[in-house]
Amino acid sequence: MIIFIGCEFLKIRRIVLLQKIKNLKVKKKLSVSLRVTISLLILSMLTSILSLVYLNYRVNNFYKGIYKVKSYTEEISYNFERLQKFLFLAVAVDDEGKIKEYVASANEVGESNLELLNNLIATYNGDSDLIDVLKDNFSQVTPLRKEVGNLALEQRNSEALQLTNDKFIPAITTALQSINQMK
């Protein structure tokens, strides 16, 4: 019963409103329709501006977070490949000057990877256990890299190659697997 009375009331209100509009002069009707049109235009503009602000937030969040993490992980992976290359070259070459150059390049790449790891830790918002595993992997790779470099500088190539194959490459492989989990 109450709903029926409410519906009837709305019908009566609508009829009264339509009669008021019909009784208005054309100038007044145009004025009212223009106001409604401008109000709808302003409302749609505000909605568009708010949508652009939200889109800006989402894009900035992507480039400051997810994109940077992906970039850091790709660069670390690339640096691990370069690190292996320089150490293998240091072991394969007999010229002492070249060996020093390759070991120095490997050390630079290793230090660069540590900086990238710190940047990755600062921007990564995911599972903190992955960060701990990655830190542990880096703590294994760094001394092995230095030891292989020292063995190459001492011209103990067979020992350096054995250490590289037995410990260094598996440590890098484990680190790369941890990095791939972060991507």
Please provide a written account of the structure.
Helix content is 92%, strand content 0%. It is an all-alpha fold.
What would you call the structural class?
mainly alpha
Estimate what percentage of residues fall within beta strands.
under 5%
Mean pLDDT: 85
For the terminal residues, how far apart are their CA atoms? 62 Å
Q: Specify the helix fraction band.
A: over 70%
Given as residue ranges, the uncertain stretches (5+ residues, pLDDT < 50) are none
> What is the 3D form?
rod-shaped
Helix/strand order, N-terminal first: HHHHH
* Main sheet makeup: none
Count of alpha/pi helices: 5
CA-based gyration radius: 34 Å
Q: Can you count the beta strands?
A: 0
